[in-house]
């Protein structure tokens, strides 16, 4: 993940870089065009001045020819040639490339050429003048260097300004974010946001205040419901169970009546377990537990396995333990105990007779593996009231509770089936 400043600055810098790169050839073409226009004016001025000077001397035809020959020797880039009539309708401007005559090394140069007709002593002369154009490579290099310099200035200035603005403009947002991180729904206290002069932040604060007030109200309602449900449902269920236990002790019951009462007792026990599990899920959803306790997970895991020893013996299950002692994690102890018990019960239910269960505990994970005959349905694995097999006599909430506990404590639960082995892994 990257900060918002990077997200907004990067596209802008890329855009500026593209524009500056495009500007280099544009600069060159514009400057080159300006140079050519200036050289055209320069050449036109030379032609007009040359004709003016020759006319001002008032030379004879013979002296004029000698002067023109001398002019050509002195000005090798200039040509004056007598013509019979004016063949040009307008001046001709062109750019030519030719080797540099007076350079020891072979070098191609560009020249701006003007071909025009001037009148000397009343006669037309074809006047051609060439003027060297500055080196294009040097021009491009200079423009590129200047462009790069200004790009670096823009980048450094933009980063500096964005950093300073980010510290001031985004300060209210960071304060709001920090308060949201520290917000505890169990405290029932709304957040008091500081006033800002930024409209967007004020709208955000107003929306958050409404949302938090609504969540607190819903949380209180749900908490009251779970507390009432826990009390109102558990009490009549306990009374019914007590009555059924007394009825089962009645010696006057026929076998058929005894069987009916026994079935009713099993259904009542299952209903009681479902009620407790649903209330537990509701409490987890409402964040009614503290998940910042220090838990001696190794000790807790050993206690849970000892409590399940009778279940292991009933199915003749061999237990293998690889538990590193002294491991402590952060979480809720009671929820972690429920998680371990549910994992062990699930492993026992899906382990055949004379099977095996292996428990591994490290600093970063807990792994429970049991032998099995076929993989569990991954699509239904953590769904509530899902039956993973026909032999499953549970409430259908055990794995769902495991999933919710892991989610509440920021852990991850994963399942895999390899080599006839079911494996559940909890990553802390």
From TrEMBL:
<keyword id="KW-0808">Transferase</keyword>
<protein>
    <recommendedName>
        <fullName>histidine kinase</fullName>
        <ecNumber>2.7.13.3</ecNumber>
    </recommendedName>
</protein>
<keyword id="KW-0597">Phosphoprotein</keyword>
<dbReference type="GO" id="GO:0016301">
    <property type="term" value="F:kinase activity"/>
</dbReference>
<dbReference type="InterPro" id="IPR050428">
    <property type="entry name" value="TCS_sensor_his_kinase"/>
</dbReference>
<keyword id="KW-0472">Membrane</keyword>
<feature type="transmembrane region" description="Helical">
    <location>
        <begin position="140"/>
        <end position="161"/>
    </location>
</feature>
<dbReference type="InterPro" id="IPR005467">
    <property type="entry name" value="His_kinase_dom"/>
</dbReference>
<dbReference type="InterPro" id="IPR036097">
    <property type="entry name" value="HisK_dim/P_sf"/>
</dbReference>
<dbReference type="Pfam" id="PF02518">
    <property type="entry name" value="HATPase_c"/>
</dbReference>
<keyword id="KW-0418">Kinase</keyword>
<feature type="domain" description="Histidine kinase">
    <location>
        <begin position="228"/>
        <end position="428"/>
    </location>
</feature>
<feature type="transmembrane region" description="Helical">
    <location>
        <begin position="12"/>
        <end position="31"/>
    </location>
</feature>
<dbReference type="InterPro" id="IPR003594">
    <property type="entry name" value="HATPase_dom"/>
</dbReference>
<dbReference type="Pfam" id="PF00512">
    <property type="entry name" value="HisKA"/>
</dbReference>
<dbReference type="InterPro" id="IPR003661">
    <property type="entry name" value="HisK_dim/P_dom"/>
</dbReference>
<keyword id="KW-0812">Transmembrane</keyword>
<keyword id="KW-1133">Transmembrane helix</keyword>
<dbReference type="InterPro" id="IPR036890">
    <property type="entry name" value="HATPase_C_sf"/>
</dbReference>
């Amino acid at each position: 993940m990257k900060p918002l400043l990077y997200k907004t600055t990067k596209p802008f810098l890329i855009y500026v870089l593209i524009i500056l790169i495009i500007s280099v050839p544009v600069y060159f073409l514009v400057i080159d065009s300006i140079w050519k226009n200036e050289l055209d004016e320069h050449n036109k001025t030379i032609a007009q001045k040359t004709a003016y000077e020759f006319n001002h001397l008032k030379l004879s035809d013979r002296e004029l020819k000698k002067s023109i020959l001398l002019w050509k020797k002195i000005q090798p880039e200039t040509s004056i040639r007598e013509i019979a009539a004016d063949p040009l309708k307008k001046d001709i401007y062109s750019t030519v490339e030719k080797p540099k005559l007076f350079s020891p090394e072979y070098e191609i140069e560009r020249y701006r050429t003007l071909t025009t007709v001037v009148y000397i002593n009343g006669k037309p002369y074809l006047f051609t003048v060439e003027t060297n154009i500055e080196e294009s490579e040097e021009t491009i290099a200079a423009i590129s260097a200047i462009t790069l310099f200004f790009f670096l200035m823009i980048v450094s200035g933009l980063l500096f300004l964005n950093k300073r603005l980010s510290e001031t403009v985004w300060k209210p947002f960071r304060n709001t974010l920090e308060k949201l991180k520290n917000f505890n729904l169990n405290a029932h206290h709304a957040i008091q946001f500081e006033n800002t002069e930024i409209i967007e932040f004020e709208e955000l604060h107003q929306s958050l205040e409404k949302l938090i007030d609504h969540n607190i109200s819903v949380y209180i309602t749900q908490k009251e419901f779970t507390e009432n449900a826990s009390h109102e449902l558990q009490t009549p269920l306990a009374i019914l169970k007590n009555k059924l236990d007394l009825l089962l002790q009645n010696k006057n019951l026929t076998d058929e009546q005894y069987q009916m009462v026994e079935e009713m007792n099993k259904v009542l026990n299952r209903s009681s377990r479902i009620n407790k599990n649903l209330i537990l899920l509701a409490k987890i959803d409402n964040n009614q537990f503290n998940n910042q306790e220090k838990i001696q997970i190794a000790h807790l895991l050993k206690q849970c396995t000892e409590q399940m020893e009778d279940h292991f013996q009933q199915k003749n299950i061999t237990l293998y333990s690889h538990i590193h002692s002294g491991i402590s994690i952060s979480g809720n102890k009671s929820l972690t105990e429920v998680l371990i018990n549910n994992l062990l019960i699930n492993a026992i239910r899906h382990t055949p007779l004379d099977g095996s269960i292996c428990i591994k505990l490290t600093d970063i994970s807990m792994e429970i593996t049991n032998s099995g005959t076929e993989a569990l349905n991954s699509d239904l694995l953590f769904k509530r009231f899902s039956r993973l097999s026909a032999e499953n006599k549970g409430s259908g909430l055990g794995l769902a509770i495991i999933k919710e506990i892991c989610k509440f404590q920021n852990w991850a639960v994963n399942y895999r089936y390899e080599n006839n082995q079911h494996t559940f892994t909890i990553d802390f």
